[in-house]
Amino acid sequence: MQAWQIQDDHTIKLASMTTPEPGPDQVRVKVRAMGVNRADILQVKGLYPAPPGFDSSVPGLEYAGEIEAVGSQVMGRKVGDRVMGLIPGCAYSEYLVTHERETLTLPDDIDFATGATIPEAFLTAYRAMFLEGGLQPGQWVLVRPATAGVGLAGVQLANALGARPIGSSRNLDNLATAREMGLVEGVLEDDTLPERLKEITGEGVAVIFDMVGPDWNQLLKGLRIEGTLVMIGVLGGTKTELDLRGMMQRRQTLTAMTMRSQPLEKRIAIAKVFNDRLAPLFANGRLRPLPLKTFPFSDAPAAHAHMIEDAFSGKRVLVVD
């Protein structure tokens, strides 16, 4: 099979690799499309290796395809099933293996490229806002920023489940897609952000879904008493200084999470959450897949360059011919 391999000079090269065989409880998926994520770019740069037990030389977390082979103990899947999913690594390949219970059913009316936009963004946003952040119907949430895939998924989820999303961006014009997906208010990423949050909500937001970091001293003034900030990314940097006294006085919670470095049982549990809670929302139209821009599987570097250089609000997807 063909797969994209990371080279010593932090580039990727299409190479021939052995097609993997499924273990007893695994399935082999013929990959038709794979979502491109910032984690892939960081991995190529040597900044975000795959967790132990997974090949760090092949990037990719998100896929859609069809099951081609099943292990001897597989009970819930069969050859020909259309699936999508989120895995710790190696999705940039023509075939991959994964535990059968990690797979998500790809509805018949969603094509493979569109399916590859769903798992990472929606699972990450749901877990961060509702499971880790405890967001409830009627509450305000800041999605920071609300421009790329995970942010757009967060806006949709908050809107669909009765919360009120506020989205941030360095340019309010970039929030046009988020507004179409249910964004209630847009705020600039500048020194006025905390005050704007108070103006909009009266007391501050209940949850901050943060992909930016790291200067929270000002930002936490826009988080209400006993509110929660959930960090999933560090686009703005990796180090900060924090006034703990103000955080303690307001009894605020700061937590961090990653979808990648989880044990198998946690990955299976979050897959079940999708099938139980989110799949019905896609079926009834309350959630919809993200806007996408496709690239041929043979041109993964172009997809990475587009993610770095372009302000497109949506997902980049590699499509296997």
Summarize the structure.
The chain has 321 residues and is of the alpha/beta class.
Keywords:
single chain, 321 residues, alpha/beta
Structural description of this entry:
The chain is of the alpha/beta class. The chain contains ten helices and 15 strands. The strands form three sheets. Strands 3, 4, 5, 6, 7, 14 and 15 form a seven-stranded mixed β-sheet that branches. The chain has a six-stranded parallel β-sheet with strand order 10-9-8-11-12-13, with helices on both faces. Strands 1-2 form a two-stranded antiparallel ribbon. Helix 3 (119-132) crosses helix 4 (149-160). The longest helix has 20 residues, at 264-283. It starts with a strand and ends with a strand. The relative contact order is 0.15.
Order of helices and strands: EEEHEEEEHHEHEHEHEHEHEHEHE
Major sheet characteristics: 7 strands, mixed
State the helix count: 10
Q: Multimeric state of these chains?
A: single chain
Mean pLDDT: 95
Secondary-structure blueprint:
Elements: E1 2-6, E2 12-16, E3 26-36, H1 38-44, E4 62-70, E5 82-86, E6 95-99, E7 104-105, H2 112-115, H3 119-132, E8 140-144, H4 149-160, E9 164-169, H5 176-180, E10 185-188, H6 193-201, E11 205-210, H7 216-219, E12 223-231, H8 244-249, E13 253-256, H9 264-283, E14 292-296, H10 300-309, E15 315-319
Parallel strand pairs: 8-9, 8-11, 9-10, 11-12, 12-13, 14-15
Antiparallel strand pairs: 1-2, 3-4, 3-6, 3-15, 4-5, 5-7
